[in-house]
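Researcher: Quick test of sequence recovery. Tokens follow.
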């Protein structure tokens, strides 16, 4: 994540900020510029960023910003959608008549915006199912049914729809599940990064020219998925899984190997961007040793490839 500053007073601001605490200018994330910046109100009720004043750009605030205060993104005036590029992907939200659900929704949207930020920075296609039903993306945030006999909501991906159980927004419940299922990276953002990996397998690999290479590295995706998961939850990962896989869960099936590898690549990408934005660099004495300079778009694939598992982690970059 980058370090941002108010365009009016240069005070430090953050990705989720909505107001500069020094000069009290409104803030919003501007996805077309890739920054969280301050805004000025125009005479016709729109908003203008000092960064885009010379271009004459104006913005509207996302409807979830103005109506529910669960978003802080802006929408370029030429875009007719009332929602920002992140919120328009959410197809189902929790029942807001339940008081705790709004806080859960807010936490889920915060994590999703961090995911979308990274996807846009990497130049990946991010289309809504509302516009492209066959290949687009949608998120559904659901609560478990009140009937104890009804099946619980499962977090997962199905044909471009990512479902997340809103219980994952409860820190205590998520921690309980993290220990129960032995998933050290079980965070809200971790869920999104993993499930979006399944989506991009469909978009980038399925029935495409890279499928044979995928099978060489990750295994045969035609293996029965249900049987593979049942075997994993019964027997666990092989004792030597660290030799060839990035996580224990990656051993369950080639699809899970891909999704876990994808998620870890996004973990590394964001960590390196944060380090670089904070001025961290690595300058070894020997030219043959790994180095890191403040050039995120160059260093991320180079450095991450050095620490990938079995050469798989950066194959898809």
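Model:
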């Amino acid at each position: 994540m980058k370090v941002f500053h108010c365009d009016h007073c240069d005070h430090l601001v953050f990705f989720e900020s909505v107001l500069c605490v020094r000069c009290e200018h409104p803030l919003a994330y501007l996805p077309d510029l890739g920054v969280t910046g301050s805004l000025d109100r125009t005479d016709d009720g729109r908003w203008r960023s000092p960064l885009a004043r010379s271009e004459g750009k104006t913005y509207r605030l996302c409807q979830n910003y103005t109506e529910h205060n669960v978003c802080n993104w802006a929408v370029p005036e030429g875009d007719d959608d009332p929602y920002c590029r992140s919120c328009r992907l959410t197809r189902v939200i929790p029942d807001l008549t339940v008081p705790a659900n709004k806080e859960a929704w807010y936490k889920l949207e915060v994590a999703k915006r961090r995911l979308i930020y990274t996807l846009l920075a990497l130049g990946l296609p991010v289309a809504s199912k509302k516009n492209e039903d066959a290949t687009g993306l949608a998120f559904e945030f659901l609560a478990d049914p009140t009937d104890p006999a009804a099946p619980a909501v499962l977090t997962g991906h199905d044909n471009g729809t990512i479902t997340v159980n809103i219980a994952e927004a409860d820190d205590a419940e998520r921690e309980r599940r993290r220990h129960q299922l032995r998933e050290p990276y079980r965070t809200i953002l971790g869920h999104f990064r993993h499930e979006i990996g399944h989506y991009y397998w469909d978009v980038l690999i399925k029935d495409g020219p890279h499928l044979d290479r995928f099978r060489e590295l990750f295994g045969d995706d035609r293996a029965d998925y249900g049987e593979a998961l049942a075997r994993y939850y019964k027997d666990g990962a092989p004792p030597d899984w660290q030799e060839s896989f990035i996580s224990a869960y990656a051993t369950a099936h080639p699809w899970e190997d891909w999704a876990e590898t994808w998620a870890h690549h996004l973990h590394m990408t964001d960590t390196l961007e944060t380090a670089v934005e904070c001025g961290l660099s690595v300058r070894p004495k020997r030219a043959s040793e790994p180095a890191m300079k403040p050039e995120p778009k160059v260093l991320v694939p180079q450095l991450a490839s050095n620490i990938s598992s079995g050469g798989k982690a950066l194959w898809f970059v």
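The chain is about 35% helix and 10% strand.
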